Structures are given as C-alpha cells and as structure tokens.
Amino acid sequence: MREGTKISRETYDDETGAITTPIFQSTAFRFPKGEKYRYSREVNPTTAELAKKFAEIEGGEMGVAFSSGMGSITTTLFSLLSPGSSLLVTMDMFGRSLRLAKDFLRNWGVKVDVSPPGNGNLLDMAKRPHTVVFVESITNPLLRVVDVENLAKICKENGSILVVDSTFATPVNQKPLELGADVVVESASKFLAGHNDVIAGLSAGPASIMTKVDQMRRTLGTSLEPFPAYLVLRGLKTLKVRMDVINRNAMQVAEFLEDHPKVQRVYYPGLESHPDHSVARRVLKGYGGVVSFDVRGTANDALKVMQSLKIIIPAQSLGGVNSLISHPPTMSHRTLTPEERKAIGLNEGLLRLSVGIEDVEDLIEDLDQALKSI
To answer: What distance in Å separates the CA atoms of residue 263 and residue 277, rounded to the nearest whole number?
Structure first.
C-alpha cells in the first residue's frame, strides 16, 4: 500500500482569497455565472469541494457527497442494482445495512445472498459471476477484517463489482480502491469529520460508476447541505493526526482489556488473538479506533459497566475525538433478530468502544473502575 495519506489542498476562493472553502449557503445560483451549480440539491460549491477532496484522498476519479452514511450506501447500491440483480453481503455488518439488503432490496427483487462471518466463506461465495459485492473492510461490531485485496481479484475475474464501506478503517489505515475495489463509501459522520457534530456520507470510484451514483443522488435527494460539508472539510485537515493517536490509544486499550479478569474476550485486529490478524497486517496500515469486548456476565452487567464510566461517554456513535461506548445488541444492532445476532457471534454482553484522543492512561483507569463495578 502506498505510504502516507494524501490530504490535498482545498480550492481557494478566487474572488475573496479565503484560505478555507466558503459555506455557500444558497439554494440557487444566478445565471449566467451560476449555471454550473444551478440548484444546491444537485450541485453546491462547498459540497462539490468535499466530494472532490475525498476522491483525491481515496485515489478515485470522482467523489459524491451525501446527507448521511446510509445515504451513501443506499444511493450507491440503487445505482448498481435492479430487480433480478445479484447482491452479496456479509452477515457481520452494521444493522441498518443488513436490513437494507435482507428486507428492502430482497423485496425489490434483488437476489441477496448473505455470507457467514470469515474470509473463507466470503471469498468462496464471491466466485459467482456478475454480482455486486458489498462489504465493510472492518466489520461492525465484531471487527472482522475482510481480505479486500483477494476479494477484489475474485470480483474482477467474475465480472462483479466490489463496494467497500471503509468507515472503520478510514483512508489513513486502508485505501480500498488501491487494493482493487471498485467503489469506496464512508460515513463521514465518524472519523472523517471526527468531532461528533455532523451527519454526512461520501462515495468515490471511477467516473463511469460515480456519474451514475451522482445522478441517482440528485433523483433520490440524498444530497448534503453546505454547512455539514464544511465541517467534514475541516475535519479532514486533522484526520491523519487524529488517527495516529487513535490507532495507538486503541491498541493499548485492547491490550489492557485482554488481560482484565472481568473481560471474557476482546475483538481488535491488532491483537494476535484476533482471527483475522494476519490479514489485517497485510491489508491495513493501522488497526483503527474501535475495540469491542465481551464482559463476563449478562447484558445487565455490560450495561452497568457502560453506565459506570466517567470519562468515556455512553452513546450510539463512533469516530470522534471523545471516546464513546455502546451496547450493540440494544443500540446499533437492535434491529437484528436473536437468530441473526447468534449467527455472527454477537453476545448480549458485548460492548463497542470507540477510542478517542484522550490520555490513554485516563481511558484505561476509567475502564478499570467501571469493570470493577460488576
């Protein structure tokens, strides 16, 4: 993988000389000069700059910005699928993404196959021809690491399209397009923006695909407003600095949790105990900022740990400078049935920790005192 993370210069405003992209808070633009943008639901200068910058960072020809991470997923998949098309997803992924595939797209007439967790199952099922394969590079919430490099080769050999949700990895730790993926999507609400203050999504890839995605965005109306686009642009400027700290903090927290008597199991790709550690070493430059772990005890014990924390905030999000913790069975993955949770190994005592940039010793002390409460 290429060294470093390309953070390209923003396009300066020629008329004012502003050194940051202005917030063009306007619904429409006056003719004839404004003909390029016309109407902000279709194109806005601030959001267009964000889409361009994301494509440059990820190594894609074209980017598109959306009103949310799910907006980027739904719009991208709708542009690639139609009734009768084939879609392959993994069971271990964000609950709403799985519901989109199994409920809506299947009812729409798409042939949806769901791979059990693990690269062996996924790579074997991906050998069927002319399929759209949608995966998370690091899965939510059990942090399985998809072998994007070999999966991309199989997809190319079979005339399939590979779409990778790289929210957990970020372009600092992995660039799926460089590994052979066709399209990368991210929830920019998370690590890209990085401050828990914006909802946004992004997608990038070749112009031949992204032009269709952009037209679908205009039709569906999943367009991003200029102010949140500005906030994501601001966050991108510190992405590399934040992720360097977050990667280090998360590794130390994972090592601490793995040795704690009140923790049954830790899920983190940087640990040698992780089932995909060898894959992670090959396809990731860093192991990310999310650490999941099973508390010894019941769901109530896990909730008590979460509620006993003093620095780490209990909340259903991730990727910010503040550390957040959630209980996936009752929060991010509450829409999954008990059978679905069992199939991916999502236990009732599982907690998902998004590690921030606080002093790592403070985070470890906070976790220790909360775990001792049970």
So the answer is: 20
The CA distance from 70 to 155, in Å, is: 24
Q: Which residues of the chain have pLDDT under 50?
A: 1-3
Residue 364 CA to residue 91 CA, distance in Å, equals 31
Which pLDDT belongs to residue 6?
A: 55
Residue-level pLDDT at 315? 95
**Sheet with 161-165, side-by-side order of all strands:** 62-66, 201-205, 183-187, 161-165, 132-136, 86-90, 111-115
Tokens of 96: 């709403």
Give all strands (DSSP E) within the chain, no chain letters.
Answer: 62-66, 86-90, 111-115, 132-136, 161-165, 183-187, 201-205, 263-267, 290-295, 313-314, 324-326, 350-354
CA distance 235 to 184: 19
pLDDT score for 272: 98
**What is the distance between the terminal CA atoms of the chain, rounded to a whole angstrom?**
43
The Cα–Cα gap between 112 and 103 comes to 10
The sign of the CA dihedral 292, 367, 318, 270 is negative
Please write down the HEC assignment for all residues of 107-126. HCCCEEEEECCCHHHHHHHC
Could you say which DSSP state residue 103 is in?
I
Domain boundaries, the chain: 33-236, 239-371
Domain covering 33-236 assigned CATH 3.40.50.2300 in the classification: no
Distance, CA of 174 to CA of 229 (rounded, Å): 22
* 32 preceded by a cis bond (ω within 30 of 0): yes
Would you give the distance in Å from CA 339 to the centre of its chain?
25
* Superfamily of domain covering 239-371: Aspartate Aminotransferase, domain 1 (3.90.1150.10)
Pairwise CA distance, residues 6 & 1, whole Å: 13
